[in-house]
Every structure is written in C-alpha cells, then in structure tokens.
## 1
Amino acid sequence: MKEVTLKQIAENLGISVTTVSKALKDYKDVSKETKALVRAEAKALNYKPNVFAVNLRTKESKTVGLIIPEVVHHFFSSVINGIINEAEKFGYLVIILQSNESEELERKQVDLLLSKRVDGIMMSLANTTVEVDHIVSIKKANTPLVMFDKISKMIACSKVVINDRQAAYDATKFLIDKGCKRIAHFRGALLPQNSIDRFLGYKKALEEHGLPFDPKLVYICEKVDYDDGRAAAIQLLADGHKIDGLFAITDMAATGALTVFKENGINVPQDIALMGFSNWFLSQAITPALSTVDQPGYKMGRKTFKLLRKEMNAKKQGIPFTPVTKTLKTKIVERDSTPK
C-alpha cells in the first residue's frame, strides 16, 4: 500500500502542502475549520508522519536509551514506569536494555545506543562495573547522560540518587532504638557506591550509639536477591553468631533471611528484629510483614527523565548545561518484623 503524503491530503482538499503541515502542527495562523478538515482527511487516509524525515530535519531521533541492571526487580520496574510515563508526555520512545549486572554487556549496550544516535542516555551501573571509560565515551559523544541509583562519582553528569548512607544510618538506628545491641548486616558487593554507602551508614550508626562494630557480622550478597539472603542467613547461623537484629541491603535479601530463620525456629521479631530496604511491593504481604526503608523508585524515574530532557533541550538550543544532582528523600516504614 502506497504511503500517504501531505501532498495527497493537500490535493484532496484543494489547499497548499504548507497549510496542511501547519494544520497538523496546530499553528495559530490556520483557522479551526481548516484544521478540522485536514485532521479528518488525514484520519480517513490513515496518514502517518514520516518520522525519519522529521528526525533528519530536527536532528532528533525522539528516542532515549535506558540501561538498568535488571528489569524484574521491583525497584527498577518502578523507575522504568516513572521514566516511560514522563517520556510519553513529550513524545519520546524509551529503549530499555538490561545489563544483567555485567560490565561487559553494559559496554556493548552503551555502544549500541550511541550507534543508534539516541538523544540521551539514562543508566544505573552494574554491580561489576569497575572501569568507566565506556561511560566517558557517552560524554565525549556529546550525548546527554543522567545516572541514577547506582552511580559513579568519577563521571561529571547529572544524577538522581537517595542519601544511601543516611537511609542506612536511619534503618540501623531504628533497630537500635527498638533495643537491638548486636546487629548483623547483609551488604551488597564491594564495588557499587550505594552498597558502600549503606554499609558505612550501618557502621556509623553502631559507632555513634556505643555499639561495637564486628566485621564478622557483615555478609556480602553479590546479587542482593532472595537466594543471597538465604545463603547469608544459613552461613550466619552456621558461624554461631548470636544477633538480635539484622539490616539487609534489600527487601529480597531480608525475605531470604526470614525464611531461613523460620525454618530454624527463630522468631521474628522476638528473637531477631529484621529490617529491609526499598519497600518492595511484597514486603507487606509476607509474614511477618517487613519493616523497611521506602525508596521512591517511580519518583526517581520521573526526575531522571526530567533532568535528561533539560540537558537535551539545552543541547538543542546550544546553551551550556551544568550537571545537577537530585537527592530524593527516604522514610522508614514500620511493620511487624521489628518490635512495637
């Protein structure tokens, strides 16, 4: 079937191609009657704008790239929803790529997005990312970039984060205020900045409240998921450590620990108070419901795209853009896994 053009619409209505184009773009110098006629004819002919031609003219692809560690994670799915909902308001298509926590795959995805000439890139780093030269290449290509959640302090770009150190401090202090004196921590891998900051927040809370820091009570969860939480809890019990509180880096890891405690006749919160992080949607559906830190994923997504759009607009207008960092607030959500 032959593609419908502006010229065909113009000939059918006996008006100029310019008038048809202006009517479809809602120009003020075209009457309402003419706009209505043009739109009706365009609909009848099933007219679709030639996106490629528009992109060549405006030098925009109207596509942006998003690289995240994993799609199925509740937090990242919330971020995705926030980004897509905001992007759709301005006619942008979001290309979503999953790095699977792999630096190698992340590098390939950056190259792919740059080769596709996307208007901008948003990304949260993989846990295994050490070198950041592939991210530097985004800046060298003059492609707008916003990092969120798992970021690199070495990259001068806009960022949307939470204060992970303060949030972890608050979570640990919450357990201390509930009477816990020997608190374990299931942390993330050694590299991601948010894993480092949450560990440091945990440690600082202990030290500032007169509780000794014991490195033997810190267990690394590489994937910070349910299986990691189970494995760390099994090891904790095998090591014979007596604890009365546990702060886990994610709700998934906390949930894994909870199942192990149940299987071993350990009552939560009577024997061990349990605190998660992120406010995963199932954290209130498990028994006991999980106390956690609420991490605003949807809001982070919206803020991330808004910052990217600001930089894209500045680039389009030839205006210098200074990167900014937006820090979103978190809050403690108290449920049944901690004493009342």
## 2
Amino acid sequence: MLPALMNSTNIHLPGSAEAPAPLATFDFSRRGTLHGMAHLGGAKEEIWFAPGPAEAVTLAPFEGAQTPDYLFLATSEPCSDGGTLRKLSKVLYQALLGHAMTHGYTQPVRFWNNIPDINRGAGDQEHYRQFCWGRAEAFDGWPGPMPAASGTGSQDGLLYIAMLAASPRIQVRHHENPRQVSAFKYPKEYGPRSPSFARATHLSSGNQELYLLSGTASIVEHRTLHEGRLDAQLRETRKNIRALRDIYPQLVPGGMRCYLRYPAQLADCQAGLHAYFEDMPDMVLLQSDLCRTDLLVEIEGVCERPLY
C-alpha cells in the first residue's frame, strides 16, 4: 500500500509572490463532496493553493473561490437519464466557459467531471456518451485548445462538474500523449461526439511550474488494452504517464488520484501501485466506475518543480 504522507495533499498553483491561499478543497472523507465516490485509502482531502488573497465567489449555479490569477467553480445537479444529462452538460459547460471569460480567467486549465451511473445505457445512450455529446456542443466554436480533464462515475444520482481557470498572466500549454490518439479525435465507435479534453496541461509563472495529468488509463492509440487484467492495466497506465512526464522531465509527481472500479481488487491494486508507482507516494484511492466498461483503473494527478 502507498499511504499518503499526511491526511491532506497540498497542491500549489504557480503565480505571483503573494502568500498562498486555499482556493479549492476536495474532501474525500465525505462521499458526495464534489465527487460522489467512496474513499478507499490515502489522504482524506486535497487542497489546491494559489497566490492570494482568495475570496469566495458565487456565480449561479456554481460556487467556489477566486484569486487574482485563478478561478475555481463547482456544482452538483441531479440527473437520472441520458437525454437530460446531455442537455445539462451543455448548459453547465456553456455557463462555466462564459463565467471564466466574463471575469477575465480566459484560460480553462482543468475540469473534473463525475457522471451519475456513467456506464448506464446501451450504445450511444450510455450516460458517458451523452455527457460527452453535451460537453462537445458547449465547446463548439470555442477558440482555444481543450484543457486537461477527467470523467469518472458518481454513485448518488448527481452530476458533479468543477473547473479551474487561469488569467492571461499564467502561461498555459496543453499536451497530447504520443502513445494515444487525441481524445477529441476518437473515431465514431466511441460515441456521436468525441471527449473534449487534452491529455495534460502545463502551467508556469516565473520559475514555478505545475503539470496537470488528465485521467490516464490502459489505452494505446484509441483502444483499451488488457481487458480484465488489473496488473497489466496498471503497467500500461504507467507507460502512458511516463510518456507524458517525458515532456517535462524536470518535474516530479505530487498529489495523485487512483480510481478503482471494483473495491474487491483493492489489495491487488495497492500491490500494483507499489510495484509500478513507487515514485508517486501521495496516492489517493477512490472507488469509481470509469468511462469505459473494460477499464478497471485510472490515474490522474500533478507533477511539479521540486523545492530543493
């Protein structure tokens, strides 16, 4: 097992020399706090800090906080069927992108999406495909590149969406994985509209850097590998993370999240993490269904410049 060093994982966004202030907190100890998933191990909360000061903000239907260079907004909305999910996803994403642009945070850099009963529905009626359809419609006409994002399953009938956006003062670069087809270029077999996200997003300001890895799984080109084999999927996921990290080899892993489909495989997952991810000690384990039914595990997180 790879327990977190503390009950809290702290992530620091790059920016000015102002003292850091808490911008967003993900509370994993309470199911339903921005995520709707069960906590299986590791740190019980994840706190994102930004150069302050920070102030609370409400932009209906979202709540969050803002600093001079960052905006964090989140909401949860009930949703029980795929058709409603498509419409709701479009409306919420349009609102988020609009709020970000209107308030001067013109660079969306990270989205978290937790989708109710993500694999329910056959074919294109699957909840994840309907979510992707609505999200893609919201991005139609968007002038910028896609940001990092992850899409996992919630278990309480709520759609959770959270966004981190940055001001133009932060340098933002989005990256794709050389081992994978860009998600927004997936063939039609994965749904009527492709997923709208980049594999990773890099933030920098001065000599400060933070590299945000999207949900990474056992996918090469656009196909899932090692169906039904948890250990092999963890190894393939490690290869995909290495490919992304090779873009910025000077950065080291910070807070990481591991999403596991079946809690009964927790011990095997912990053994695999110990074998393949020894340089990623701050690993939070969460139970979640994933965007493809043949995926057993997915990992996301950040890499940062060492302090020493």
## 3
Amino acid sequence: MAPLAIAMTIGLLVLLSERLVRLLDVTLGKKNSIGVIFELLGYLVPHYLGLAIPAALFLGLLFGFNRLSKDSEIDAFMAGGVGLHRLARPVIVLSLVFAVLSLAIFGWLQAHTRYAYRAVLFTVKNVEVFYLAEEGVFMQADSRTFILDKLERGEGSFERIFLYDYRGPQGSETVTAVNGSLIEQDGDPRPVLRLNDGHRLKIEGRPDLRGDTKLPTSTSGTFKQIDTPLGKISGTVFRPRGIDARERTLPELWSILRGNEPVNKMNEVQAEFHKRLVSAGTILILPFLALPFALGTRRGQRAYRFAVALVILVAYHEIIEQGAVATKISQDASPYLTIWLPFICLTVFALWRFSIVCFSLRKDRLEPIYDYLAEIIGRCREMLLRRIGGPA
C-alpha cells in the first residue's frame, strides 16, 4: 500500500502540475483566478485518476512483492506450504475493488466532470481581457485597442481610458473617458464596462485613400455615463452535455448503441463504450501480470524485469488508445478487433506467466531477455566511461 499511495500521489501531482501551467495562461489575472484554477483542477482529478490508479497499482505490486522476494519471505511461505497463488489473493481482491472504483470513475464521474471543466473554461475564456489590463500598456481585445491609467483591481475601477474599436468596412469608434469601472451582473457572466465623463467619435465607414469618393460621415459628442457589456457569448449558457461522446455516461452510451437515441457519430460512441470497459477490466489483470515480474532469483536482473514490465504496460495502453482512435475514424475497424483483442492477448499472457510462476519449477523464459538487456546497457556504460576518461 505504501508504494501504491506514493505512486498515485506523485502521478497525480505531476499530471495536474502539467495542466496547471496551461490553466495559468488562461485564468491568471482574472477575478477569483486562484479559486477558478482549483475548481478546474478538481474537475480534472477523475480524468487523471483513470490513468494514475492502474499505474500506481502496478508499481505497488511490483515493489511490494519484489521486497518480499528479496527478503526471502516468499521462500519461507512456500516452504511452509503457502503458495504464491494464496499470497496473491488479497491483492486480487484489492484489484477488484479498484476495478469497481475505476468503472464508476470511467462510467459516470469522468463524463460529468469533463463537461463541468469545459463549461467553466468556456465561461473564463469569454470574460474580456480588461481583467488582464495593466496600467499604461496598450492591450488588444478582439477589435478593441485600449489603454488604462491608475487601475484598481480590487475595486474594478480605473482612471483615464482611451479605447479604439476598429470595425473594418463599417468604420471605427474612439472613446475617451475620465474614469470607469467594471460592474458584475447577476445571471450574466459578462461584466459591464461603465465609463464616466467622456468623449466619443464614430466614423461611418472606411475612408477611400484614392480620393474618388466622399469622406465617410462622422459623429462626435460627449457623455456623462455609458454602459457596454464585455465578452463574446453565443447564447446565455454553455451547450448541453452530451455533444461529445466522452461526456456521456456508460448507461447513456449503451442506450445509444441499442438504438434508443439517434446520434450522428456512432463510431465514436462504440469506441468510447468499449474503451471504458476494457480500461476498467485491465485493472483485474494487473496482479497476474505484475507478480511474475516482481519475483526473481538472488542473482537475477530485477531492475530489468521492472523495465520490461513497464514497457509492456505502456505499450498496451498506447495500443488501446490507438485502437479507439481507429474505431472512431473508420467504419471497418471493429472495437472487438482494435480494443478487445489486445485486452484478450494481455490477459492470456498474464495468466500464462502467473500459472508458470505459481504451479511449476520451470525457469522464466524471459530471463535471457533481462540478461541481454543488462549486457547491452553494461557495454554502453563501459564505452561511455572510456570516452570520458573514467574507470571502466
């Protein structure tokens, strides 16, 4: 449990840290940006748990049983008549618990949190860049160019604004004001820009530099106070959940596959449904796959056993991902061939290896591979040391 918990914690921190950097680019400087970042990261936790749980369980099994093997505790158990298959029972039950948890995460939680994440990100991106404004710096917000002075972020107020709105063939508008503020609206994510004591110049159309036509008409005037909403919102709310197949729960995907609900992209629904089932089922195989790699002889290459095991798991994950992609883009790619066949192959391989380790005394057939890898890496290290002048 200790290496499992450590691996899961480190894995989640690494994955969330990578996404944190991208979220900072979107939210930094906006109102309640810290709270928004933690909310978005919270919605990402179920997504990354789907990756972290199998990886952490696999590493926990490798390190836990490797320690039992190195300390000769497995030898003592077997000498007392307790076989490896009996020692594996608790971790098989543990993998069953994690498989059920993963099925709940893949089948229900990820669908809702993915939609919530996109909805919050949509709202954040549709807040104008005025929240990112700096004093005395020209800023661009779509067709608007503006500069502010004496900005008070806490109160949402500023002094002396110059704003130029270029509208192409429809002309342009220039506004200056003594002061202004950003006002929140109930029921509308867009703030209102309120300007006080200003001047306004509006030009109808774009001037013809050749001089063949008349100059466009213009109007100018002063105002005491004007309000304008900021932002670009196509509709009052974010789109409904379910446009993307990844936002559907497992029962909803099953309902679509049975023809109870019309959908345009049936391939995406098939790929998503079968991929989730396989991802949850893979966790049940991990004890049978990890235990043979965790055990080894006293003089065996244990580190290379771990390397081969991790390569197999990563390659399998990539095959499933690419199989799901192939099912989405091709009518001829059946999910039973692209997704379920690799799962069955890994299951047969894991059970075969587990049965050999538990119920026979034959030498591990992958042992020559570990020795070969150790020999290659040893030669490369010697060559490197000779080139840099170190001891061989």
